[in-house]
Amino acid sequence: MKLAPEDGKTINFYTTKMVFKTTLAETNNSYSVILMTHQASTGPALHIHPNGQETFYIIEGIYTFTLGNKFIEAQKGDFIIVPQGVPHKYVSGKDGGQMLVTTPPAVEKYFLHIAEELVKRHVPLEYEFEIAKQNGQIFLDKEGHWGHRQ
């Protein structure tokens, strides 16, 4: 199978455009591959994935990653590997950016569920974090979650 750059299920997750290049249905529920385009200063709050590792390939822009107690600046061409269970987060730079993300099992379901809810209503973080937890993403903090300021 070949996908053109615009091919794949597309959702808006807050201000981030996500294009699902490979879904759980296509990988025997093993992982998803998502092309994410971020606006400036955007990313998730600190979280872990207890069921698998996550990887990020930077296509454009600059991102600051927190992996455990380390800070990493990543730019075009860099590949970041987050081992299973390691607390992590990232934030896009002042010009936004684009990355290809390989997620652990079920995280795709969290993104799809919340994106669908966001079309209808404001989604409280407590509700979102519960859906995330049910789908393999456990948030440890609320700080700066997808641009929200506490």
From TrEMBL:
<dbReference type="InterPro" id="IPR013096">
    <property type="entry name" value="Cupin_2"/>
</dbReference>
<feature type="domain" description="Cupin type-2">
    <location>
        <begin position="38"/>
        <end position="95"/>
    </location>
</feature>
<dbReference type="InterPro" id="IPR014710">
    <property type="entry name" value="RmlC-like_jellyroll"/>
</dbReference>
<dbReference type="InterPro" id="IPR011051">
    <property type="entry name" value="RmlC_Cupin_sf"/>
</dbReference>
<dbReference type="InterPro" id="IPR053146">
    <property type="entry name" value="QDO-like"/>
</dbReference>
<dbReference type="Pfam" id="PF07883">
    <property type="entry name" value="Cupin_2"/>
</dbReference>
<protein>
    <recommendedName>
        <fullName>Cupin type-2 domain-containing protein</fullName>
    </recommendedName>
</protein>
